[in-house]
Every structure is written in C-alpha cells, then in structure tokens.
Design a protein that fits this description.
binds 6-phosphogluconic acid; Rossmann fold; alpha/beta; EC 2.7.1.12; gluconokinase activity; single chain; ATP binding; binds adenosine-5'-diphosphate; nucleotide-binding; 5 strands; 191 residues
Length: 191
Amino acid sequence: MNHDHQGVFCPAPSEPVAGPSSAFWVVVMGVSGCGKSAVAQLLAQTLGLPLIEGDDFHPPSNIDKMQRGIALADADRADWLLILGAELARCCDGAVLTCSALKRSYRNTLRSAVTDLRFVHLAISPAESLKRVAQRPGHFYPPSLVASQFEALQDPAGEPGVLCLAGDAALATLVQQAHVWLGRTNATCAE
Ligand SMILES: Nc1ncnc2c1ncn2[C@@H]1O[C@H](COP(=O)(O)OP(=O)(O)O)[C@@H](O)[C@H]1O
Ligand SMILES: O=C(O)[C@H](O)[C@@H](O)[C@H](O)[C@H](O)COP(=O)(O)O
C-alpha cells in the first residue's frame, strides 16, 4: 500500500521517471545527526530545487516507535521509502530529499522511482552523531537509537551516483562540494 503523509493514494511509477535533461534528483543521506537537513536545505536553495524532508513522511507509527526508543525495521521503512520515491517522481524538474537511506536496498527502492538518482552521503563518527542528536532539543529521535543507525548503515561508496563527504566539515564547504559534484556528473551519473 502506498499513501502519502495525508493518507492519499500515490501510485508508484512502474518505470523510473525521467525529467528534462537539466533535471536531477539528489538524496542527502546518512545516520541521524549527520547534517542531512542542514545541508539539504542549503543545497536546495543553491540549486533552486524543492526540498523534501524525509522525516515528514514517516507514518505516526514509525515516529511513535522511534520516540519509544525502538529502532525501525525493514518492514517499517518499506512503505515510507515508496512514498519518498513517489514524492521524488512528483517533482518533475528535480528535488533534494533528506533520507537516512541506510541500506543499499533502501537506496535501490528510491533509485527505482527516478532516473540517475544521486546520493550525497554525509559520513560522521558515532561519537559526533551522538553528540549532535543529544544536543537537538525537542526532536523525536532519541540518542539511545544512534548506535542502531550505525548497525544498519551500509556504506554507499562505490555505488553509482554517490558522493561521500566528511560530515564534520563546515556546512558551506559541504554544500559547495555537493554543488560542484552535481554539476560535474549531470547527465552522466557515472561515478
Ligand atoms: N557540518 C556541520 N557542522 C556542525 N554542525 C552541524 C553540521 N551539520 C549539521 N550540524 C548540526 O548538527 C545537528 C544535526 O543536524 P541535522 O541537519 O538535523 O542532521 P540530520 O538531518 O542528519 O539528522 C544540528 O544541530 C545541526 O545544526
Ligand atoms: O530510517 C530510520 O531509521 C529513520 O529515518 C532515521 O534514519 C532518521 O534518522 C530518524 O527519522 C531521525 O531523523 P533525522 O535523521 O533527521 O535525525
């Protein structure tokens, strides 16, 4: 079953959606606290593309689970990833999506929604992730779940269309590096 966050049915595309040649879609990915939201917001502004916040599309049951300190399982993430793929496909001229996308199979679900999907992986240490998550007041995601993110993470290095960055660099540097890379790989997505 595939619903958007307001419960409206979203048909999943049977073929990845291709946009105009200038269009591209990019996922800013990584463990909790790696900087997905911060980087994606600036990157979307820089590129003039819509921002899709992956966390906004979790069903209440997932939020509730995480708030109670229970890590999501593959089954909890399956519909969420399909919805995020449909959201990407809906943005015909491209978009920037924040999504943890921790496992290769999750990334492949997103790849099946749009052509040449790029991923910018913000890699940080468990200690840095824990520090940042613990300092984020009012967020639903508890520090006790940080270790589970690293257990689930499958490094995307070597997969097509992936840029890996050190997430402890300055925000402006990260956005610039992603921007340059996206310009260089546009239309080929071979890296
Ligand atoms: N490159 C960075 N350097 C320093 N602090 C950062 C950086 N990126 C993000 N942060 C801070 O870390 C915290 C988590 O960032 P956030 O973007 O919410 O991560 P995520 O969306 O991956 O969970 C926020 O307080 C944010 O301001
Ligand atoms: O797949 C998951 O386990 C969740 O999506 C998780 O990766 C995400 O980190 C939380 O929703 C917290 O949100 P932030 O990543 O924005 O901290």
